[in-house]
Amino acid sequence: MSDTSKGAQQGPAGSAPGRVVVVTGLSGAGKSTALHALEDLGFFCVDNLPTSLVRPAVEACEAGGITRIGLGIDVRVGSFLAGATAALDSIRIGRDVVILFLDASDETLLRRFSETRRPHPLTTGGSGAIAMLDGVLLERERLASLRARATIQLDTTRLSTHDLRRVVIERLRPGKVDVPRMSTRFVSFGYKYGIPLDADLLFDVRFLDNPYFVHGLRELTGNDEPVRDYILRNGDALEFISRTEQLLSFCMPRYASEGKSYLTVGIGCTGGRHRSVVLTNVLSDSLRRKTGLPITVVHRDVARASASVVPSGAGEVMAGVAGADLRRTQPGAAAPEPRPASEESVTGGER
């Protein structure tokens, strides 16, 4: 038995749940997807629950003040099936109980098991389509009486996982519960420290002029007005903002409509302190207004100390000197060996 809940809605201890949704049906028809959709609506969900534990589980949730409960019941074993009717009847009194039964065509179920390479739970021997089909037919026969008692029957034959999630939310959403919306996170970062591992979309803004090399701006960040003004005076920056805003305002609502829960957009420059910070702030503010989606901002590397190892302007003066090594040397340390003129100079600053 696995507890799949996250962030379940709770109320006063001992209060009756507003709704108990029992999810059952044929294996491969989408029971796990339906339970995940209920989780997104704030239900406390328990999957693969034996029928003998239905009433104790509901009562335990009530004692903890949980107001919405989702139960995934597996009645593939004969002893479970025998107690299913009594178990469901035992929780109906004083409760709003909904039985959601998921079904699909035999061909669809066989295809889904083939794609996942998992055996049907009632397949007891043999191999290939014959044994698998026997398992599907046996399960369908065993569940006939439970299907007849279902409050809602859903045929998932032509539904993708995203479609099924959307249908479950539409049919079972409590009146005062908002449909879950995609949460979007904008992350500014420095490529020198690595890209965000969870980024779905990445934008590289290192083509813009770098305030790092401008006197008076190096120690500031993109959150400071002088740096912001410097970046936004650049026509390329404004063009980038316009084009990226157009792209994301098109993509974000469509990602959300397909059931995507999280979207992370990474915007990177060299050190993650100037260019990426300004553009992340501008784009997130604009898209928050345009899409209406919740957007959070993280400036991952803005607090890192500026890696200033060369006096301002030294890079420009020394870059053309053959063999020049601009690395900082400690007092008393031996002078660095000259390098061949063909080697690239090390400036120590940002590009």
Q: Could you give a quick summary of the protein structure above?
A:
By secondary structure, the chain is of the alpha/beta class.
Instruction: Label the structural class.
Output: alpha/beta
CATH topology of the largest domain: Rossmann fold
Instruction: State the distance separating the first and last CA atoms.
Output: 55 Å
Global mean pLDDT: 80
What would CATH call the class of the largest domain?
Alpha Beta
Percent in strands: 15-25%
Strand tally, please?
10
Helix-strand sequence = EEHEHEHEHHHEHEEHHEHEH
Question: Which strand order spans the largest sheet, edge to edge or round the barrel?
Answer: 1-3-4-2-5-6
- C-alpha Rg (nearest Å): 30 Å
Look at the structure and name the CATH superfamily of the largest domain. P-loop containing nucleotide triphosphate hydrolases
What does the model show?
ATP binds at residues 25-32. GTP binds at residues 74-77. Residues 20-173 form the RapZ-like N-terminal domain. This protein has a six-stranded mixed sheet with strand order 1-3-4-2-5-6, with helices on both faces. A four-stranded parallel sheet has the order 8-9-7-10, with helices on one face. Mean pLDDT is 80; it is low at 10-17 and 308-348. The chain is built from eleven helices and ten strands. The chain has helices spanning 31-40, 54-63, 78-90, 106-116, 128-142, 144-148, 161-172, 225-232, 235-257, 275-291, 314-318, and strands spanning 2-3, 19-25, 44-49, 68-73, 97-103, 152-155, 183-190, 201-204, 262-269, 295-299. Helix 1 packs across helix 7 and helix 9 (235-257) packs across helix 10 (275-291). Helices cover 37% and strands 16% of the residues. It has 351 residues and is of the alpha/beta class. The chain has three domains: 2-172, 3-Layer(aba) Sandwich (Rossmann fold), CATH 3.40.50; 183-299, no CATH class; 315-351, no CATH class. The chain is elongated and about 80 Å long.
